Amino acid sequence: xxxxxxxxxxxGIDVLRIDEVDRPVPAGTQVLVQVRATGINPGEAAVxxxxxxxxxxxxxxxxxxxxxxGVVVELGPDxxxxxxxxxxxxxxxxxxxxxxxxxxxxxxxxxKPENISWEVAGALYIAGTTAWGAVHSIQLEKGxxxxxxxxxxxxxxxxxxLARRAGATVIGLASERNHEWLRSHGVIPVAYGDGVGERxxxxxxxxxxxxxxxxxxxxVELALALGVPAEWVDTTIDFAAAAKYGVKTEPxxxxxxxxxxxxxxAELIADGQLEVPIANVYPLxxxxxxYAELERRHTHGKIVLMP
Length: 307
Ligand SMILES: NC(=O)c1ccc[n+]([C@@H]2O[C@H](COP(=O)([O-])OP(=O)(O)OC[C@H]3O[C@@H](n4cnc5c(N)ncnc54)[C@H](OP(=O)(O)O)[C@@H]3O)[C@@H](O)[C@H]2O)c1
Fold this sequence. Notes:
Elements (H helix, E strand, L loop, with lengths): L1 E5 L10 E5 L8 E10 L2 H8 L17 E9 L11 E5 L9 E5 L3 E3 L6 H4 L3 H13 L7 E5 L4 H12 L3 E5 L5 H6 L3 E3 L5 H7 L7 E4 L5 H7 L7 E3 L3 H7 L13 H12 L7 E6 L3 H8 L7 E5 L1
Parallel strand pairs: 8-9, 8-11, 9-10, 11-12, 13-14
Antiparallel strand pairs: 1-2, 3-4, 3-6, 3-14, 4-5, 5-7
Helix pairs in contact: 3-4
The structure holds NADP nicotinamide-adenine-dinucleotide phosphate.
């Protein structure tokens, strides 16, 4: 038997429990991965409460989690790459990553560079590929100015760094305690709250070309009010505003980047060109505490479970 996060109904954090389940058996091109680290994301909380049931339906008992890093411990009969003992970064498409053991298709894995910590490797997939998709969707050109809301959070901390790598001037919206981290990554920090529009304009003498909203709650409207054309606004969360104003929602519910982009991000991290701040690490058994922290919505970087 092996431990896995499960829940039987939509609800708050207290529906989450740790179950003893049968050891999964890899079929076809799956491998069994012993999970060393698995990130948590706000979208998982929204799936769990049922808030996203129209977009992401659930069946019960439900597992949870996409991000993962770990060690290959068993191969399916058709696996032609990866060996037992390989250290890998990847993702579960079956909401099964918050567990000691998880089945993963080999196409959803990439080797873990030796010099990346388990915590960082396990935190990459959802936030990293979302930020990658958002930054690519607005096609930044060198010297353009982009604003990022939620700039120090899971998605935002990747997005600001990827936008800087694209040569953009980046304005990051965050509370004061995250300003030094943003500055240290070449980002102009701006406090959110009353007067944020004026503060953004004061820091953007060449105008604002694009806006990545990684927080929701009115930033799409703010971007449009600041004169950013709808096609250069991307929101990772405000789907109602996106439908109303025709802004982008990359990476959307389909076509998210996969293992190739994970490999690209991992290489940047291994080279010291991309930082993933780890806000906190919890044992798998403390999954409720981990989400309680995440759902306060002031995480700097990523929270990770370590089975
Ligand atoms: N579409 C997709 O595929 C996809 C994928 C991943 C995430 N998402 C969504 O994208 C959003 C961001 O995800 P995440 O993982 O980055 O979340 P997160 O890590 O929980 O974001 C936390 C950040 O939000 C900031 N924040 C809090 N209040 C704010 C405000 N009023 N204005 C601006 N920033 C504020 C916090 O900054 P301070 O600590 O400085 O206050 C903190 O750094 C979530 O809504 C998530 O559901 C969508």
